Known about the structure:
The complex is a heterodimer.
Chain A: H1 4-32, E1 36-37, E2 43-44, H2 50-57, H3 59-93, H4 98-106, H5 113-124, H6 129-136, H7 151-175, H8 179-187, H9 192-220, H10 224-230, H11 237-245, H12 251-278
Helix pairs in contact in A: 1-12, 2-12, 3-7, 3-9, 5-7, 5-10, 7-9, 7-10, 8-9, 9-12, 11-12
Chain B: H1 2-10, E1 19-30, E2 33-44, E3 48-53, H2 59-67, E4 74-79, E5 82-83, E6 94-97, H3 109-118, H4 124-137, H5 153-165, E7 171-175, H6 183-200, E8 203-208, H7 211-217, E9 220-225, E10 228-233, H8 235-240, H9 245-250, E11 255-262, E12 265-268, E13 271-274, E14 280-286, E15 291-293, E16 303-314, E17 318-325, E18 330-336, E19 346-349, E20 355-356
Parallel strand pairs in B: 3-8, 3-9, 6-7, 7-8
Antiparallel strand pairs in B: 1-2, 1-4, 4-5, 9-10, 11-12, 11-14, 12-13, 14-20, 15-19, 16-17, 16-19, 17-18
Helix pairs in contact in B: 3-4, 3-5, 4-5
Amino acid sequence: xxxxxxxxxxxxxxxxxxxxxLLLPYLLMFCYSFxxxxxxxxxxxxxxxxxxxELLRVEVYWQTLLRSMWIAARVMFFSLLLxxxxxxxLSFCAGASKDLYYQLVIIPLWVSYLxxxxxxxxxxxxxxxxxxxxxxxxxxxxxxEFLLYSPFAVVLTLTHIYTPFxxxxxxxxxxxxxxxxxxxxxxxxxxxxxxFWRVIFPLSIPGVLAGATFAFVLSLGDFxxxxxxxxxxxxxxxxxxVSLFGAAYNWPLGASISLCMLVLVVSLLFASERLEKKWxxx
Amino acid sequence: MAxxxxxxxxxxxxxxxxxxxxxxxxxxxxGKNVVLRNISLQxxxxxxxxxxxxxxxxxxxxxxxxxGFESATSGELWMAGQRLDTLPPYKRRVNxxxxxxxxxxxxxxxxxxxxxxxVENLDKGEIASRVEQALAQVKMTAYAKAxxxxxxxxxxxxxxxxxxxxxxxxxxxxxxxxxxxDANLRRQMxxxxxxxxxxxxxxxxxxxxxxxxxxxxxDRIALLRRGELEQVATPREIYSRPASAYTAQFIGxxxxxxxxxxxxxxxxxxxxxxxxxxxxxxxxxxxxxxxRVAGHAARPDAVRFxxxxxxxxxxxxxxxxxxxxNDGLIFSVRTGAREDxxxxxxxEFDPQDAVRVRASAEKG
Lengths: 282, 364
């Protein structure tokens, strides 16, 4: 259809972009993860598996990874718990005001991530809105310390930030369900609850999977929320990577953690895509 | 469920033919838009009733009100002596075959058919045997394990039918189920559907915009026009004795003759014939096949006219001619296809074949 030259000219820039800004850094990271740091703080360019041995040996690394996964799993769970009913309500019950609600869900995405994280800081802190209120109504005598600088604060903030990301694919998949299927189900004697579990939910599974993947993967790699609100007990794996690349100046170890994360995330994405395909019927 | 099974069985005796569904003064409007006005209609047990109308006539809305997907603005529905319109759709013993079949894409053919039984929590053995029987009835046993996306439109149609019939409803609603099929398959399905209906003995309410389909399949036709019932009658009656000009024109071809009765004689252009109608303006419908080429033996009371052949359309067994008379009257005449015409032939018809019809007001 188009000439060969034209096709080459058009496809070249994105290819170069991907090569320079994606493949090359990945390749570098891959190499770094097999190098080491000398006592004199220089990178030693000889191949070794020491970094990976270190990861398995030092408890704090894999425990932080596990904690990160546990935090990400909770964020995923709560954003599904909030996002699904919200999407269902918009798709099936909101009627004419659907668009308005949709915009209301989208608008927070325009607000900077940092602002939202700081907002939770002012709400949850010991002199924060929540503690002041609780003491004012005499529910508590002293500020509740666990609210801020805890995994709880991280889960809460990330859930708040990523719920729209789970909402969107679920909403899209619900909107795609032909309404006559719902009518057919009612017509065949299924109550609204039966219709939901036997027709609507199974047909929305691709959206649920996509939304769950978003929430899990995005929170797994998050480092700002734990940095601002996590405290010592809320540290996540990315914080460790940041400090290894920064203050600790151990790029090879940081690269090996990053590579493990990359493999984990890519296999998750792959698995979720396979599952989504299995559950889509259009 | 024993009582409901007896109910289904009792419909097998067409002799009883008591009223199953009664639609009483149903009206429906969406905001300011009036879709149905004052519809009253009865469906007998075991009857095949077709709701016929153009698009926008309100036929699908009426069907959806009976199914329970819409609620009437006013009026009542009664089925087998019980109020129907107050029940949600899933509690009505009414099932629907949807226009685009609405098969569940995540379930196999077999699971689709069994769906309505599983939600009733019937035992597995009974579900399996009823599903098998229903699939056999529509000749889809071979496709039991297939997903709906893997079978053709005609096959999806059969599955939708089996899925509704397996519930043993008292009343089956069909919303233009054949409109998506090609002409040949459509004709075949018309015959199959009709014989299936006789076999199961369930009342069918069938919605279509296709008058030929309505004629072929129905026990009675309810012709709907702009939200009002124009006429409810058997296909023969509605064809041979149309109540209004609209009915006469919508079902088959017709010649509408408008004129005036003066002292027992109808005057229409240069034609006139004796009639028992009272004086005043009248409208007659005369079917093209009731006009014939005038023979040599003059019939005493036949009305004769001469005209120029303007157009002829060959229909296979017959031919439809367009004849223009000197006084400007235009007639459609159906003749055998063999005859050959030249010049200005003479035609005749019997006055008793001209049916007086109500003029249909041109609204909107």
